[in-house]
Specification:
single chain; 47 residues; mainly beta; five-stranded antiparallel beta sheet; 55% strand
Length: 47
């Protein structure tokens, strides 16, 4: 999943940079410039 392009309901499109907590959380760099740790379950994979 690292490197995957994903969509988040609030932040929009971004790319997964790393996984934390056994994959339960993802560090994502979003297209709007925000980098955040979000629950992996909130993300849908686009590519």
């Amino acid at each position: 999943m690292i490197g995957a392009i994903v969509n988040h309901p609030l932040f929009g499109r971004g790319q997964v940079l790393e996984l934390r907590n056994a994959g339960r959380d993802s560090v994502v760099r979003f297209d709007n410039g925000i980098r955040a740790v979000v629950p992996s379950g909130m993300l849908s994979v686009l590519q």
